[in-house]
Amino acid sequence: MSSSATSQLSIESDAQIEGLHKGEFPETPEIKCYAECTLRTAQILKDGKLNVESLRTQMAALPKQYSEPGLVTIEKCKDTITGADKCEAAYSFYKCFYNDNPGNFFLP
């Protein structure tokens, strides 16, 4: 999934994507649209709006070590999607999801 998004966008290196998993959120259009692409591809986001039911279903299918804290994070972050466009909206969700529980962050 992430390779599809990186090939569609001008992502210069895997280090930029790896940085997201370390809490590094550069304010670049490419990274913001990477977040949108991966969430859209996973059917978590559509037209800049979070598909909460799809996300809950996908999260519940994961091992408990991820699903239980992940479901809590969804509730905390589901209303934080803001932005001028769908890339900004996805990026804001990515940041919230990471900041709520960095040790459990696993978005693509």
UniProtKB/TrEMBL annotation:
Pfam families for the chain: PBP_GOBP
One GO CC term on file: extracellular region
GO annotation (BP), single: olfactory behavior
Region described as Disordered: 1-23
InterPro entries from the UniProt entry: PBP/GOBP, PBP_GOBP_sf
Superkingdom, natural source: Eukaryota
Record protein name field: Uncharacterized protein
Species this protein is from: Ignelater luminosus
